[in-house]
Design goal:
Dihydrodipicolinate Reductase, domain 2, 38% helix, 17 strands, single chain, 9-stranded mixed beta sheet, alpha/beta, 23% strand, globular
């Protein structure tokens, strides 16, 4: 490593503060050194909180700014970490990339493909690196699942299912996610489409159905002995059913963020000889497999014939094989890792963010291409938008058509709100 990169954090809300935790884990592990030289937020209190947190965790208080323009005049930095809401990503990243500053941008890269392309073009002109901050694929469970799928131990894959049901009438994380330009489905589902990309690559065709089921949602706060509810009128869809076609295989995504009561979370890959059950990220649960035998089929009854043949069990992995599955950075951050881990949620969260930042910062210093670069960020967004466009048009769409901007009917309003197209 020839120098210690200087990083500017833009956006000091919950996600920005979590990224400070990621830098802390990088430095604590001894894997890399990076300096956080400045923090930017339009709300001074947030910038001050982030600077104070950085001083506590990193031992150095960064400068704090209320605007990017102010930071560019006063701070020297080679890289920027953009953690603002997605509607602003292109506005912040474009000028930085055009002057050669490398940028890692929180997911989703943009709410529309046009916004993604704007940043990719800026990176090409300015020569800076554009990376996507995508933490889910870096969880050891997904690393192991990818290795198992590619190894073909259970034969070729036939189908995959990602199911997420829950949310009720609550405002999910922040109000902007329920605006059309915020897009709770895009914000959440780009994680899952990135997992499909990581496991299987890009699909050829996409068919989707979407709906806005809860038009009124509520923010809840404890006030004394009671819960205070504030209503919010939602614009963005909260239900999506999508099929991604891969020749003779299909991956399905079913997300219902309006369901109250008991929820569901499931990620399963079905292969010729069995299945792989992948746990939710940051839980540390083991990856499980099921390989039915002929006798398992003989025990089925009319009421169980469609519920599977054999319950999954944790996949057995030797320490020597684990060293092949996980890279040295993952092994350093998850000591003794084989299949599953036992850590507090926030510790795991910091470590996964550390892995995405580490990949980016090494590329800044040594060259190379990030695992999740701008193009991968655009693909994960395009796959969600393809399903929403399909629902809007009532037909199957091609991913190429989305990427080439030939299919943008659903995105039309959002592009106008983002200033990416005009009414002329």
């Amino acid at each position: 490593m020839s120098y210690t990169p200087r990083l500017l954090l833009v956006g000091c809300g919950l996600m920005g503060k979590r990224h400070i935790g990621g830098i802390y884990e990088i430095r604590k592990s001894g894997l890399f050194q990076a300096r956080l030289v400045g923090v930017v937020d339009a709300i001074p209190e947030r910038a001050s909180e982030a600077a104070q947190l950085a001083e506590k965790m990193l031992g150095e208080r960064p400068m704090q700014f209320s605007s990017l323009h102010e930071a560019e005049r006063a701070a020297e930095f080679e890289a920027a970490d953009i953690c603002t809401d997605p509607a602003t990503h292109h506005k912040i990243a474009q000028p930085l990339l055009e002057r050669g500053v490398s940028c890692i941008v929180e997911k989703p890269l943009s709410p529309t493909v046009r916004g993604c392309k704007l940043m990719l073009d800026a990176a090409n002109r300015g020569g800076g690196i554009l990376a996507l901050a995508e933490n889910y694929r870096r969880d050891p469970a997904n690393r192991l699942a990818k290795w198992m799928i590619e190894g073909g131990e259970l034969g070729g894959w036939l189908a995959a299912a990602q199911i997420v049901v829950g949310g009720g009438d609550n405002v999910l994380l922040t109000p902007w996610r329920h605006k059309k330009s915020g897009g709770i489905l895009i914000d959440l589902c780009c994680h899952y489409t990135d997992i499909f990309l990581y496991y299987f690559g890009p699909p050829s065709g996409v068919q989707g159905s979407s709906a806005l089921l809860r038009r009124t949602r509520y923010e809840r706060r404890v006030r004394g002995d009671s819960v205070e509810k504030t209503s919010l009128e939602a614009e963005a869809e909260d239900f999506l059913s999508a099929c991604y076609f891969y020749g003779g295989a299909v991956a399905t995504l079913f997300v219902n963020l309006a369901a109250s009561g008991e929820g569901i979370w499931r990620r399963t890959v079905y292969l010729e000889e069995g299945s792989i059950d992948v746990p939710m990220e940051r839980t540390g649960e083991p990856v499980k497999t099921s390989r039915p035998s002929d006798s398992d089929y003989l025990t089925l009854r009319p009421h169980t014939v469609f519920t599977g043949q054999r319950t999954g069990t944790p996949y057995s992995l030797s320490p020597s094989t684990a060293a092949e599955v996980y890279d040295k950075e993952t092994r350093a951050l998850f000591p003794g890792l084989i299949n599953g881990y036992k850590m507090d949620f926030w510790e795991v969260d910091r470590k996964l963010i550390a892995l995405e930042l580490l990949d980016f910062l090494r590329c800044v210093v040594d060259g190379g291409r990030p695992e999740t670069g701008g193009f991968e960020g655009m693909l994960s967004v395009a796959m969600v938008l393809a399903a929403l466009e399909s629902s809007h048009l009532g037909r199957t769409v091609s991913l190429d058509g989305i990427l080439e901007l030939k299919t943008e009917r659903y995105q039309e309003r959002i592009n106008k709100e983002l200033g990416l197209v005009s009414d002329k």
